Amino acid sequence: MNNPSAPKKITWIIGLTCGILGIIGHFIDVQVLTEHNYTLLLVGFFVLAVGTTVKGV
Q1: Distance CA 45, CA 31 (A)
Q2: DSSP-derived secondary structure letter, 29
Q3: CA–CA dist 30, 7 (Å, integer)
Q4: CB 40: neighbour CB atoms within 10 A?
Q5: CB 55 within 8 A of CB 7
Q6: Does the pLDDT value for residue 13 go beyond 90?
Q7: Alpha-carbon distances, residue 22 vs 3, 7, 12, 31, 53 (angstroms)
Q8: Which residue of 7, 40, 45, 52 lies most exposed, with the fewest beta carbons within 10 A?
């Protein structure tokens, strides 16, 4: 297994933004965000996980 590495700044920002939007959609009734809150959280987690396991992403 590869050693984890820090993701690029843009990868980190995309993952964090998706996660924050998912959390906002869970607690605040915003039509689009509320419908896809779990998907946004999953995508944010996946982007951050890939960013730390694949070097250069």
Answers
A1: 22
A2: -
A3: 30
A4: 22
A5: no
A6: yes
A7: 29, 21, 15, 12, 23
A8: 45
Which pLDDT belongs to residue 1?
A: 64
Q: How many helices (H) and strands (E) does the chain have?
A: 3, 0
How many angstroms separate the CA atoms of 57 and 53, rounded?
9
What are phi and psi for residue 40, nearest 5 degrees? -65, -40
For the stretch 23-54, pLDDT in tens is: 999 999 999 999 999 999 999 999 999 999 98
> What single letter denotes the amino acid at residue 6?
A
Q: Which residue has the tokens 């250069």?
A: 56
For residue 12, what are its two tokens? 């980190």
Cα–Cα distance measured from residue 2 to residue 17, given in angstroms and rounded to the nearest whole number: 26
| Amino acid letter, residue 47 | V
